[in-house]
Specification:
The chain has 13 helices and 14 strands. It is of the alpha/beta class. It has a seven-stranded parallel beta sheet with strand order 5-2-1-9-10-13-14, with helices on both faces. Helix 1 runs parallel beside helix 2. The two termini are 16 Å apart.
């Protein structure tokens, strides 16, 4: 019985989590523990938003909006329109009515004294998710982007309003050096047989998880194999603006470069193995030279079946 931990965030993380759930079910293995990025969380109009947590929650529950890639399917926006009529909130950051229902519930539980871990556990009771969700930390460590000229923006403003068109200089998570892994995260990694790094944005989705003190160390010390899946296919990002983020930290937009960014465990990095797309088969030798086992497989997550095949390949790597 394979005990599996997934590090994930964003739409790529949500799709991959669906594939992992399916692959594990077919093998008869226990449900995965998914450690979710909370670096893009924020307070807006008095409620606490956790975009990556919600994307993965909605996807596993089967209620996500697959066309937009975020939010609830069939949602309406009456409350958002009313908030805008009062001149509050961000007009470019749409919150659906069903989505707001979750945000209000979450905020109430937080105000009552529950931790984010406890809130997510309570949220997870509504649907049969087939996985355990954990935040990377219970601390508030929102991502701040410094752009050319020195202006500092919340990640969501830079990402959603400006569509990453403002050249970033740095990505920071203020307070993260004092944060601790959420309850159960280090234990899950220590007890795992395999840890999978989802094909999420390496800088703003996986990066904050690895920056929480104690998580990178847990990955280096676990007896589990740590296997990553490339978010880059044929030299291009699949979705979003990860290429802009990678350029800002001096990493080339390529499967081999992202593997090198994560690094081999033998040299103080986190990876034992790395999956690249068939289109990037030429990267297998350079990645192997880093001390990371590498295989080229189909990586397009067109549907759950394709995602499950990718997850199965990662589990076997």
């Amino acid at each position: 019985m394979t005990r599996t931990v997934v590090l994930a965030g964003g739409v790529g993380g949500a799709k991959f989590s669906l594939g992992v759930r399916e692959a594990l079910a077919r093998r008869g293995d226990p449900p995965a523990t998914i450690v979710v990025n909370t670096g893009d969380d924020l307070w807006l109009t008095g409620v606490r938003l956790q975009p990556d947590v919600d994307s993965i929650l909605y996807a596993l529950a089967g209620v996500n909006d697959r066309e937009r890639g975020w939010g609830r399917a069939g949602d309406s926006e009456r409350v958002h329109e009313e908030i805008q009529a009062w001149g509050a909130g961000w007009p470019w950051f749409t919150l659906g009515d069903l989505d707001l229902g979750l945000h209000v519930a979450r905020t109430g539980w937080l105000r009552d004294g529950l931790t984010p871990t406890e809130v997510i556990e309570r949220m997870s009771r509504r649907w049969d998710l087939g996985a355990r969700l954990l935040p990377m930390t219970d601390a508030e460590v929102d991502t701040v982007v410094t752009v050319a000229g020195g202006e500092r923006l919340h990640f969501q403003e830079w990402w959603t309003r400006h569509r990453a068109t403002l050249a970033p200089i740095a990505f920071e998570n203020p307070g993260i050096e004092a944060a601790r892994p959420a309850s159960g995260v280090v234990e899950a990694i220590a007890d795992a047989d395999v840890v999978l790094v989802a094909p999420s944005n390496p800088v703003v989705s996986i990066g904050p998880i690895l920056t929480v003190p104690g998580i990178r160390e847990a990955l280096r010390e676990t007896s589990a194999a740590v296997v990553g899946v490339s978010p880059i296919i044929d030299g291009r990002v699949v979705r979003g603006m990860a290429d802009v983020c990678l350029t800002a930290i001096g990493v080339e937009t390529s499967a081999a470069a992202v593997a090198a960014h994560y690094g081999a465990r033998r040299d103080g990095g986190i990876l034992d193995a790395w999956l690249v797309a068939e289109e990037d088969a030429a990267a297998t030798a350079p990645v192997a030279a880093l001390g990371i086992r590498c295989a080229a497989v189909p990586l397009w997550m067109r549907d759950v079946e394709h995602s499950a095949a990718i997850a199965a390949a990662a589990l076997s790597a």
